[in-house]
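Hello forum,

I keep getting stuck at the same step: I have a sequence, I want structure tokens, and every attempt I make locally crashes halfway through. Rather than fight my setup again tonight, could one of you with a working pipeline run this one for me? It's a single chain of 346 residues.
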Amino acid sequence: MTAPRHALRVIKKSARIALRRSPVRKVGSKVRRRVITVSASGRDTLVDSVFMPAAHGSAARVRYAGVLDGHTLNLHAVLPDGAADTAVPASLVFVNGEQRVRAEARLHRDGGGRLCASATVLLGADIGGLPVTAGRWRLALELAASPATTRLRLLGDGSPAFAGPTRARTTCPRTGRRHRLGISPSGQLRLTVAPPRPRAEVLRIEHSFTGASVLFATYGPTGQGPGDSGPEPVVELVEQERRLVRRHAAEPLPGDDGAWRVTVPLATMLDTSARQVWSFRLPRPSGGRPLDIGLREHDLRAPRRVLTPPRFTVRAADGTFVVVKPQYTRRGTLQLVCTPRETSAR
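Reply #2:
Ran it on my machine without issues. Output:
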């Protein structure tokens, strides 16, 4: 490599490092967190000062509601005084137009003696849960009291405040469907179910002395998901510096129609004279932008600190040992950074 090209690479890398460490990059995340906090506080004030008094005892106040693992709804609400007794059967009702589905709820009293309702509901018929389909579902609480059944609206969203290393996960890891809680214009708790986005998620990385295998799953209309009858997908490996593209066919994983394995023969494809950065993408048979294979659906605030696999060593065809460091970009795209041992940092 010529001296000017090497100097330019060093300058670009130094600029990227300086930008990543700049406090300016942190302003955006702080502003977003502040906006979310203020919005949640404003919704709570509106529900408590306007919607609850207007309900005149015909609504329950949601104190907590969240979808924590992508497909399990957890709910806790406080009922109005005299609404029922703890022995009364209760149900959580999901309403979407003419569709109505029910899940079991439990009545109990909290430490202050208030009547409360709690429910834990698995979402999605294909995973053995409640058959909620794509759309907006209004939630209510139904009490089978005598002499007539009573239905209470659920007001407020009870949005949990996550301040630790994790956050709410709204995408189901098994189906790719997205579940988001919010409130309607009238303050009633609402669950929005959306179909899966096209994406390719890393399951794990396996390696040997001659290469690596990336196991990934596809979701949404990728052309290679469960039920697709097309050929096995071809994964493109893109070298970032020289824009080289190599293609390797993926093979299906036994027992999972939407999971695949692509084996990368690093030993025969590495250029041991320079550092290389390889990324993975999945072309879509129907056209459009290829899907970057990576890791995006998780519940961590800093996934690159927690989920980055360990580095390993590969022996190239010319006998050179190359250090391979898997990493994820800020957008979650998987990269393999390959550095000849002679020039790698010790």
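The chain is about 15% helix and 40% strand. If your local run keeps crashing, start a new thread with the error log.
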